[in-house]
Write a structure and sequence with these properties.
Layout lengths: L1 H30 L4 H11 L2 E6 L5 E4 L2 E2 L14 H4 L1
Antiparallel strand pairs: 1-2, 2-3
Length: 86
């Protein structure tokens, strides 16, 4: 009985910790923003591409380094303008 309780407790703590970490990451992603200076820096280092290309990491990318998600591919088939990329 004690071993079963201990194993259940460990699983509960592990799942609770993972949920807390996921919630923290979600909160950070949805509350942070990039300053104008940060946007200029990203634009300078990423460069602009008007059509989808494979980045060095092998991911489909467009604009100023935006990684194209599967559900966005149709949206970017015709490319993107600099104005839309910002």
């Amino acid at each position: 009985m004690t071993k079963l309780f201990f194993c259940t407790f460990i699983i509960f703590i592990t799942l609770w910790h993972q949920a807390s970490a996921a919630e923290s990451v979600y909160h950070l992603i949805h509350t942070l923003s990039v300053s104008a200076a940060g946007v200029r820096l990203i634009e300078r280092f990423e460069g602009f591409r008007e059509s989808i290309y494979q980045c060095p990491g092998g991911k489909p990318t467009i604009g100023y380094g935006h990684v194209v998600k599967d559900y966005e591919k149709d949206k970017f088939l015709k490319g993107i303008t600099k104005e839309d990329a910002q």
